[in-house]
Structure prediction request, 424 residues.
Amino acid sequence: MTAETRKRREEMTAVEKVATWDVEKVRQDFPVLSQTVNGKPLVYLDNAASSHVPQVVIDRGSKYLAEEHSNIHRGVHYLSQHATTAYEAAREKVKRFINAPHVRECIFVRGTTEGINLVAHSYGRKFVNEGDEILISEMEHHSNIIPWQVMAEERGANIKVIPIDDRGQLIIDEYENLLNERTRMVAVAHVSNSLGTINPVKEIVATAHKFGVPVCVDGAQSVPHFPVDVQGLDADFFVFSGHKMYAPTGSGIVYGKRKWLDEMPPYQTGGSMIKTVTFEKSTWADLPAKFEAGTPAIAAGIGLGAAIDYINSLDFAAASAHEHDLLEYATQRLADIPEVTIVGTAEHKASVLSFTIENVHPHDIGTILDQQGIAIRAGHHCAQPVMQRFQVPATARASFAFYNTREEVDKLAEAIQKTIEIFA
Ligand SMILES: Cc1ncc(COP(=O)(O)O)c(C=O)c1O
Prediction:
């Protein structure tokens, strides 16, 4: 893209951006989307759980396995060096994608869950002591609750919870009141997987930093939907999964500021993460190897790099605008159905539409929609405290990617209507 085109794109309004998004062309990139399910064209609205993989990323994975596979960081032979170069090139792509200051601050993990466990346990061992406090929010995914809970229990620390309001937004005044000299970490989602709320992470970080407290951002649901700049956010840690952003499963990233990572002990130990080993004492490799024990998921890491190349080949701003348009359209369509209640009505949302239907269990909604070829999620979405907050056992959740269409939203609304008729 020329500088002039880029400037013109930046100046476009949201409506103009949506108009430039050629969704039918993009859909051709994803082989799975041409499938039928239960005799109906697949309508895939479970992207918050896992998004699909474009052909270029599938091809990159196949090429690696067919022609380049070898263990990395250790061999002197051609294939090993070739695979190492490809893997490290993927790390460099990650660095640029999230605007990390240095490639060494980008650690490959298998996904967000492993990444948050790494941060919680390693940081906790070094920096958390009896009576300290860890601040998380009421809207977190279990992956951003339990690692902190387990670590806090081991260290004699306490978990404090930032409450959310009836729209599913963090109550920022309460957050500020909860911060104190005992707080050792704030861990929050960038975007909630169960409510779709986009949290004001930049402000949350700035406030925490006034108390000298680092912030760990769960970016699982933000990186697939809009550009993220970890330096702009000033996040101390930022964690995400590849499989929600068009890459294969088994890839993920922990970005961490070097000042913390250098101080933190290794999370897992074994091969590849050492400098020297004797039976008396071992020393650790430099970043990022210190946090990458054992053979990594090489194909998945290279696949993540290919997914980033794919996203970079698109107009990501137009993709975000298109997704936002879909979310607003779907919200309107569902709001027009009296039996439907939308759970999560924050002012700023991305991609997720959770709802319930009067007298119909979400699992029944999911099953009936599946008969129409529509894939949504039903359940507690690994966010049981959110379900408790809204006093529902579960919700149905449609979540959008840039390859979804308004016609698919219409099919969703029609299938919901049909479900209501069946249960009437
Ligand atoms: C907000 C959020 N955090 C963490 C996770 C866990 O991600 P993974 O299962 O890829 O480790 C998810 C997955 O749905 C999520 O949505």
Summary: The longest strand covers residues 183-189. The pocket of pyridoxal-5'-phosphate is lined by residues 48-49, 111-113, 141, 143-144, 189, 193, 218, 220-221, 241 (CB under 6 Å). The longest helix spans residues 78-98. DSSP finds 16 helices and 17 strands in the chain.
